[in-house]
């Protein structure tokens, strides 16, 4: 493993910044200074010191949160609103949302301190399918739903084919289930608006094979190593 990557995982700095710190001679491997930015270490055996402090890598955590409406999907909010990270109480590690849900969107949001995992989950090339329950105004006609299924023109281009089905109809609104593979900004809301049915409320019910089962709004659970591996495999297979 690259020394700079190890330093990033130990929370010292970003990989690029870590390379600069290495070049400045502030890092020792097994007691000897190393000034080579691509230096390879054995994370199991080597002793890494930065400015005289021995580094240990952060344990990786993966959290499934049932986000309530009214929480911002970021670590801090410059306007002082509550954030999803405020809901994660019992860990000392710093976690970040994996992608984002709008302020008023509820449902399944992952958080992690594993940057590689986050990139894999949100990279457009490996997009994991996401399922939403969407309450929209009015009752979409069959051909409108077909437009969502085939791809619809938005200002940032045509959407990829989606699944779109009616779950329940009310007098003047309809509950839909929509499944998309992309993760563009406000995508579901913009898709529904494009067929003339504005979103009244939005909830993400699944991320890949993960669901909200057993997790009440505002609560969270840790993913198992098996679930994390399965998500990674799913992302890689989506790429093929
Ligand atoms: N699509 C949206 O419009 N908003 C979300 O929060 C998620 C998907």
Question: Which keywords apply here?
Answer:
28% strand; 3 domains; 240 residues; Alpha-Beta Plaits; 6 helices; Structural Genomics Hypothetical 15.5 Kd Protein In mrcA-pckA Intergenic Region, Chain A; four-stranded antiparallel β-sheet; nine-stranded mixed β-sheet; binds uracil; alpha+beta
Question: Helix and strand layout, with pairings?
Answer:
Blueprint: H1 3-9, H2 15-23, E1 27-29, E2 32-33, E3 48-50, E4 53-54, E5 62-67, E6 96-97, E7 106-112, H3 115-122, E8 130-137, H4 142-150, E9 153-154, E10 157-158, E11 163-169, E12 173-180, H5 187-194, E13 199-207, E14 210-211, E15 220-222, H6 225-239
The chain binds uracil.
Residues 101-102, 105, 186-189, 202 line the site of uracil.
* Low-pLDDT windows of residues: none
Largest beta sheet, briefly? 9 strands, mixed
Radius of gyration, Cα only, in angstroms? Answer: 22 Å
SS-based class: alpha+beta
Helix and strand sequence: HHEEEEEEEHEHEEEEHEEEH
| Shape by Cα distribution | elongated
Q: Give the strand tally.
A: 15
The tally of structural domains comes to 3
Tell me the span between the first and last alpha carbons: 26 Å
CATH class of the largest domain: Alpha Beta
> If classified by CATH, what would the architecture of the largest domain be?
2-Layer Sandwich
What hetero molecules are bound to the protein chains? uracil
CATH H-level homologous superfamily name of the largest domain = Pseudouridine synthase I, catalytic domain, N-terminal subdomain
What is the CATH topology of the largest domain?
Answer: Alpha-Beta Plaits
Helix content: 10-25%
| Percent of residues in beta strands | 25-35%
Mean pLDDT: 93
Number of helices: 6
């Amino acid at each position: 493993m690259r020394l700079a990557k190890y330093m990033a995982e130990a929370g010292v700095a970003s990989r690029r910044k870590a390379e600069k710190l290495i070049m400045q001679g502030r890092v020792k491997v097994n007691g000897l200074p190393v000034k080579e930015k691509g230096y390879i270490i054995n994370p199991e055996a080597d002793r890494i010191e930065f400015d005289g402090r021995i580094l240990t890598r952060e344990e990786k955590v993966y959290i499934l949160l049932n986000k309530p409406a009214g929480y911002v999907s970021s670590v801090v909010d410059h306007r002082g609103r509550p954030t999803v990270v405020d809901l994660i109480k019992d860990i000392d590690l710093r976690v970040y949302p994996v992608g984002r849900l709008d302020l008023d969107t509820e449902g399944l949001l992952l958080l992690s301190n594993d940057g590689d995992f986050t990139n894999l989950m949100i990279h457009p090339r490996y997009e994991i399918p996401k399922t939403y329950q969407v309450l929209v105004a009015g009752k979409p006609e069959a051909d409108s739903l077909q437009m969502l299924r085939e791809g619809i023109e938005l200002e940032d281009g045509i959407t990829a084919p989606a699944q779109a089905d009616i779950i329940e109809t009310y007098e003047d609104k309809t509950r839909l289930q929509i499944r998309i593979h992309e993760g563009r900004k406000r995508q579901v809301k913009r898709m529904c608006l494009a067929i003339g049915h504005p979103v009244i409320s939005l909830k993400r019910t699944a991320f890949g094979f993960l669901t909200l089962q057993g997790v009440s709004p505002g609560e969270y659970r840790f993913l198992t190593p098996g679930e994390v591996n399965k998500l990674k495999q799913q992302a890689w297979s989506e790429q093929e």
